[in-house]
Design a protein that fits this description.
By secondary structure, the chain is an alpha+beta fold. The protein contains nine helices and eleven strands. The structure holds 4-diphosphocytidyl-2-C-methyl-D-erythritol 2-phosphate and adenosine-5'-diphosphate.
Length: about 290
């Protein structure tokens, strides 16, 4: 088999409404997600052979602490695809455990790169975020993450910012006092452009934001810094945190704000890009 590379983009929860809780403890969600042109890169090559399990190496600026054994979601995805004969390499650019689905997007990249189509329940057992990462375009996500409906969004210039604290997803859900909150409106409107899209997003919520700030006050500091950036229209946390995003109407404004923020907070992880559909970029690229 040829060596294949797949881009694993960051998943951003533009909204995250927690609308209920199932008997098994998992929470029901109503979330609008988009994908950023910022992400990890997975390389799939022939490995030592069947029966020995996939091998994995990890490099990149965010590699520290990422598991290199069978617990890594990329190994679990290869096993699910019944491909234990692979050598996997992961270049980590996304901070782990940070609310932008890095591990889930990596697992989805394995399945995309192998053209594997396991059933939805098996995919969900890898992680609730993996199914949405198989189709990295804007979508509404319901259920616990398995009900996916494509959405039309204008390109959204954004900064992604992580204060270098990790918050555990189960702890954040546990700290949410009310599990039954209003969903988004039944219809997501057709947006004429970036301005009315951001206006609408501003009326929605991330219900996990307040409990995450209670556990990690640094998240509040990030949001305060983002909302005061020049031309910032909306600042919100993604997923269960701690990564937050800031939205702008133009790429120039986004770049200007990025320069500003990097000067003030050299210790934060900061990335910039236009969010939207990363499906094309996330396609496998074969090397001879
Ligand atoms: C909160 C979200 C929003 O997109 O994103 P992240 O913060 O992880 O990026 C996801 O629902 C996270 O998905 P993911 O991280 O794949 O979840 P899993 O590994 O399946 O579950 C980790 C833990 O999160 C909680 N969990 C997850 C999903 C869900 N719908 N309800 C939950 O209660 C459970 O406590 C579960 O044990
Ligand atoms: N490929 C991977 N990249 C990052 N973390 C991984 C990976 N595989 C397994 N993990 C584990 O999964 C946990 C959640 O990571 P991640 O998916 O990046 O976070 P989140 O669900 O908050 O977006 C981490 O604590 C890490 O130990």
């Amino acid at each position: 088999m040829p060596t294949t590379s797949v881009f694993a983009p960051a998943k951003i929860n533009l909204t995250l409404h927690v609308t209920g809780q199932r008997g098994d403890g998992y929470h029901l969600l109503d979330s609008l997600v988009a994908f950023a042109p910022v992400g990890d890169t997975l390389t799939i090559a022939p490995g030592p052979g069947a029966g020995r399990g996939p091998t994995l190496t990890v490099s990149g600026p965010e590699a520290a602490g990422v598991p290199v054994d069978g617990s890594n979601l990329v190994c679990k995805a290869a096993v699910l695809a019944e491909r234990s004969d692979l050598a996997l390499h992961l270049h980590k650019s996304l901070p782990a455990a940070s609310g932008i689905g890095g591990g889930s997007s990596d697992a989805a990249a394995v399945l995309r790169g192998l053209d594997a189509t396991p059933d939805l329940q098996a995919v969900m057992r890898l992680g609730a975020d993996v199914a949405m990462c198989l189709t990295p375009h804007p979508q509404r996500v319901q259920g616990i993450g398995e009900q996916l409906t494509s959405a039309q969004l204008p390109p959204l210039p954004a900064l992604l910012v992580n204060p270098r604290v990790q918050v555990a997803t189960p702890a954040v859900f546990k700290a949410l006092p009310g599990k039954t909150n209003a969903p988004m409106p039944s219809q997501i409107p057709g947006f004429g452009g970036v301005t009315d899209c951001i206006d609408w997003l501003a009326m929605q919520r991330n219900d996990l934001q307040a409990p995450a700030i209670a556990l990690a006050p640094e998240i509040g500091a990030v949001l305060a810094a983002l909302i005061t950036l020049p031309a910032c229209r909306l600042a919100r946390m993604s997923g269960s945190g701690a990564t937050c995003f800031a939205l702008f109407e133009t790429e120039d404004q986004m770049q200007h704000a990025q320069t500003h923020l990097r000067k003030a907070h050299s210790d934060w992880w900061i990335a910039a890009g236009v969010m939207g559909d990363q499906s094309l970029k996330a396609r496998p690229v074969n090397h001879a």
